[in-house]
Amino acid sequence: MNIDTTNLKHIAFIMDGNGRWAKLRNKPRYFGHKKGVSNVLKIMRECYKLNIKNVSFFCFSTENWNRPQKEIDHLFDYLEDFFNKNIKEMMEKDIKLVVSGNILKLRKSSQDVVNKCLDLTKNNKTMIFNVCLNYGGRDDIIFGIKNLFKEIKENDFDLKDLNEETFKRYLYTKDMPDVDLLIRTSGEERISNFMLYQLAYAELIFTKTYWPDFDVNQLHECIDIFNSRTRRFGKI
Ligand code: IPE
Ligand code: IPE
Ligand code: MG
Question: Is 45 helix (H, G, I), strand (E, B) or coil?
Fold first, then answer.
């Protein structure tokens, strides 16, 4: 199959359904997170192969702190493991890690491994791999406004220069273009506070598959659907 990704500069995933995937198998929810985190690697590799330059994964939201602490701990165990194991591959593939969200709220061991990977990969150019941790779309906008205020105070930023494009520079996703395609797995059809600013004109695809089962073939199908859509951006 020949997959055309010419118009796909940024693909984003709301990787939902880990818990239900596990429940279906009579396993604890964290079993689903383990499988879910390993699936990030598979899908990230395929996006890389397809030459998509910006890939985002919603891994932990500002609202997910309301889950049982044990579930949160397991999830961050898997995420830390993920970064430790895959940093080498990210370097080999020239992939730059970006983490969207305030990582200062994460436990120290997670901050450490994330900071290490951010630092090691900071000059990589081939693809941006954006992992959203403690991320909320509203929090992102507030973060942007705070950055902007700092710039106004410190660097004489002229408010005349503020517009929809220049504001993007202050968001967590500052080096990335708008999202072209958002895929949410698990059957839920909502945004759940993800990338409110960046999704303004994204194509949305909701699949019934639980995230741990979302595979390369389904990714290809989603891209086909994306390519078959007419994006008008308000024009006729
Ligand atoms: C998505 O799977 C992963 C995270 C939110 C961390 P869920 O854990 O939300 O799985 P469901 O939706 O309960 O099945
Ligand atoms: C969204 O999934 C957040 C992530 C995938 C990290 P949730 O499972 O937390 O969303 P809701 O609660 O169903 O809206
Ligand atoms: Mg969920």
Answer: helix
CA of 190 to the centre of ligand 1 (A): 13
> Is residue 16 flagged as an active site residue?
yes
Q: Is 26 a catalytic residue?
A: no
The contacts of residue 12 (CB under 8 Å, 6+ apart) are: 55, 56, 57, 58, 179, 181, 182, 183, 194, 195, 198, 199, 202
Per-residue pLDDT reduced to its tens digit, 116-162: 999 999 999 999 999 999 999 999 999 999 999 999 999 989 999 99
- The edge-to-edge listing of strands for the beta sheet with 95-100 is 95-100, 127-135, 54-61, 10-14, 181-184, 203-206
pLDDT at 156: 86
Distance CA 112, CA 219 (A): 32
pTM of the model: 0.98
**Cα separations in angstroms, 94 against 51, 91, 163:** 12, 5, 32
Q: Using the atom order of ligand 1, give the atom closest to the CA of residue 20.
A: 14
